[in-house]
Amino acid sequence: MATSRLSIVFMLTFFVLATSIYAKEYIVGDENGWKLDFDYQTWAKDKVFHVGDTLVFNYAAGAHNVAKVNGTGFQQCSTSASNGIMTSGRDVVPLQTPGRKWYICGVGKHCESRNMKLVITVLPQTWAPAPSPIATSTSGKLAVPTIYGFVVGLFASLLLLLV
Fold first, then answer.
1. How far is Cα 107 from Cα 116, in angstroms, rounded to an integer?
2. Which of 14, 22, 48, 163 has a 20 to 30 Å separation from 98 between CA atoms?
3. What is the dihedral of CA 27, 28, 31, 32, to 10 degrees?
4. Residue 21, burial from CB neighbour count under 10 angstroms (0-12, 13-18, 19+)
5. H-type helices in the chain, by residue range?
6. Edge to edge, what strands does the sheet with 117-123 contain?
7. 99 CB contacts (<8 Å, ≥6 apart)?
8. What is the pLDDT of residues 22-68, one digit of tens each?
9. What is the rounded distance in angstroms from the CA atom of residue 82 to the CA atom of residue 95?
10. What is the pTM of this model?
C-alpha cells in the first residue's frame, strides 16, 4: 500500500515538473538583444513558441522600451498607455495564451524606421515536446536540451523505488 502511494506521489511530481521543464526562455535577438536595425522576423522564423515559454528583451535601459501591441499598433508602430510599456532593460514576458503576439519599441522612430518590432505566433502547450534538431549556436557551443538529464534522473529514482 505504501509503495502504491509513493508511486502516485512520484507520478504527480513527475507530471508537474515535466510541464514546467518543457518551457523555454528565448532571448530576443540572442546575443544581439533588442536593438536598432536587427531583423527580428528572421530571428523568430525558425523558432516554435508555446504557452509557458518566456521572451526576454535585453537592451540598454533608457535607450529603448518594449510595448505589447495589437496587430494595428504593430503595423502603425503606435503605442498607448494601455499597452503596458516595459522599460527595465531586461524585460521578461511570459507567453500565457496561444495566438499572435506583437511587440515594438515605442521610443522615437525605432519601430518605423529602425525595425524594432517582433511578431510571433504562440502555440498551445504540448505535453510531449516536438523533436528538435541539435544545433550549434553562433558561439560554436552545442545546444542540447536539458530535459534529457532530468528524465534520466527521474527514471533512475523510479528504479530505486521499485527495488
1. 10
2. 14
3. -160
4. middle
5. 2-21, 40-45, 71-76, 110-114, 147-162
6. 49-50, 117-123, 99-104, 67-69
7. 121, 122
8. 799 999 999 999 999 999 999 999 999 999 999 999 999 999 999 99
9. 18
10. 0.68
